[in-house]
Design a protein that fits this description.
With 223 residues, the chain is of the alpha/beta class. The chain is built from 9 helices and 8 strands. The structure holds adenosine monophosphate (AMP).
């Protein structure tokens, strides 16, 4: 099963991706998490990416495309994957198509998390993430609290607000999303893989909608 999650920051893609990937046994590949981990480790890619991430703009295509191609070439992604936050530009989508064509594979679904701007802003301002970048679990002050305040349920590390979730950078990230990422909605509509879902829905009902839809994709593939 090869799935992409597309949508604005704060649409709930990461929250759903963790759950869906675990349920389906496929790797959750978040370019945001990969880049934050690289930045924290001080690697060459991380150093290159950090300035863009701190400003809330996109890391250059060639850097992200290279990182994703390396990740997709690992054995655990051979039978399927869930890409969260990638592609974000038309050249990234074209690069992904080229990788899939070489592997004689195709995307099963691109879920587009259509989400009103007020919901996005509310979600981002209450978001807390695990400070351990290789865990990267996500919480929310009102809607998704950890069992113990300020501590990650999964790994026990302290939680923190994301630096790029402040008001100024949220504005930048939303405007970058509108300019550079929304053309992908038409791109995948043309490919016939786009499936809009409501990002404003609660976590469990939305997960059920996606799971039910994926079951129909699986049926068609085996028909
Ligand atoms: P996210 O965690 O998906 O909100 O991503 C955080 C930041 O990482 C973004 O604001 C970008 O600077 C960078 N980033 C993540 N994914 C991509 C991508 N596909 N293309 C370019 N930059 C990205």
């Amino acid at each position: 099963m090869r799935v992409v999650f597309l949508g604005p920051p704060g649409a709930g893609k990461g929250t759903q991706a963790v759950r869906l990937a675990a349920a389906r046994g496929i790797p959750h590949i978040s370019t945001g998490n990969m880049l934050r981990e690289a930045a924290a480790s001080g690697s060459a890619i991380g150093r290159e990416a950090k300035g863009y991430m701190d400003r809330g703009t996109l890391v250059p295509d060639e850097v992200v495309i290279r990182a994703v191609e390396e990740r997709l070439s690992r054995p655990d992604a051979a039978a399927g994957f869930l890409l969260d936050g990638y592609p974000r530009t038309v050249p990234q989508a074209q690069a992904l198509d080229a990788v899939l064509a070489r592997a004689r594979a195709r995307l099963d679904r691109v879920y587009y998390f259509a989400t009103p701007e007020d919901v996005v802003v509310r979600r981002l301002s209450g978001r807390r993430t695990c400070s351990n970048k290789s865990c990267a679990a996500v919480y929310h002050l009102q809607t998704l609290r950890p069992k113990k305040q300020g501590v990650c349920d999964t790994c026990g590390s302290p939680l923190e607000g994301r630096a790029d979730d402040d008001e100024e950078r949220v504005k930048t990230r939303l405007s970058v999303y509108h300019k550079q990422t929304t053309p992908l909605i038409a791109y995948y509509q043309r490919q016939g893989t786009l499936k809009p879902v409501e990002g404003a829905m609660d976590i469990e009902p939305l997960l059920a909608v996606i799971q039910a839809d994926l079951a129909t994709v699986g049926e068609k593939a085996h028909a």
